[in-house]
Amino acid sequence: MDPDSILAHVAFTTSGSLVDCIDKKVLIILRDGRKLIGVFRSFDQFANLVLQDAVERIAVGNRYGDIPRGLFLVRGENVVLLGEIDLDREDIPHPAAVPLPPAALPQLMAAHKADEAAKRVAQATRERLLREQCGFSPEGTEGDGY
User: pLDDT value at position 120?
Assistant: First the structure.
């Protein structure tokens, strides 16, 4: 095998591997937990992404709704996961998932905010118990200070 054909089979581990996802429908999960669905149109050397016809999917329990976002630019450092959506399976709803009509979105948003607040309280309690009972240090204080 010549060296050029070997290099052609080496998997990319940089933003260059995103080329295969161009013009495909993708799901992106951000660091803050938001989930975006849209058509992946472009990216740059920092893995900043451009989504066309993007929607933000909000889910609470087995109910979900989509908030239209249009053209969306995502800073690369905020991306946790990017995956292609299988268009054949997308039209088959999950039996447990209940898509809500746009009119029900305000109620879903209120439930989502309450769910997020409950998660924050649980996280704060968990962190406090880890500090008090297990000797963990608070977030951001684990530097090199002696």
Answer: 92
